[in-house]
Amino acid sequence: MRLLIVEDEPRLLRTLSKALREEGYAVDTAEEGEEGASKALSCDYDAVVLDVMLPGMDGWEILRRLRNEKATPVLMLTARDATTDRVKGLDGGADDYLVKPFELDELFARIRAIIRRHAGRSHPKLVVGDVEIDTRGRRVEMAGKPVTLTAREYAIVEYLALHRGQVISRSQLYEHLFDENEDTLSNLLDVHVHGIRRKLRADLIVTRRGEGYLIE
Prior knowledge:
The protein is α/β, with parallel strands linked by helices and about 220 residues long. It has helices spanning about 10-20, 35-40, 60-70, 85-90, 105-120, 150-160, 170-175, 190-200; strands spanning about 1-5, 25-30, 45-50, 75-80, 95-100, 125-130, 130-135, 140, 145, 205-210, 210-215.
């Protein structure tokens, strides 16, 4: 999953981006409103973590522009614990709202929840036959036994399971699994998919030649 964090406090931005990368997310960042709006509109992120108070353009305006074009899940951050702000954000199209300071575990849980809701999946566990994906713990079991996947392998399985039945192109997977600073290789997905099939089931991920991958 690929996230965008728009936050003007450098220390908090570093903390959030590091923690979310350690959780297995690809993370892009922006410190100013104009940059945040440009990135949010130009890339199909799985979620945007958006601070309200930003230099140049505030979070409300970014949210307004984004909602005019996209339904990307948005989690608003603010230092103001005012009901009017929460109502303004939610009525403006934000999917959730978090008041600073907050615990990282709560941030992680809220991000997972808005991504699931956007994909039409309310339950934190995704089940595909005898394969169970726990999106809270980022764990996978097959026939009741834990299976160890790399962070990238897990991200592929989770993304395809969240969009079960849809053919996801290679370019979509690259866009959702790698951030703007990562180099990508043309056969990298093939390597990861091969690893998933070896550890889980050979038929779990179906290849549609010329189209992409899917979990049926």
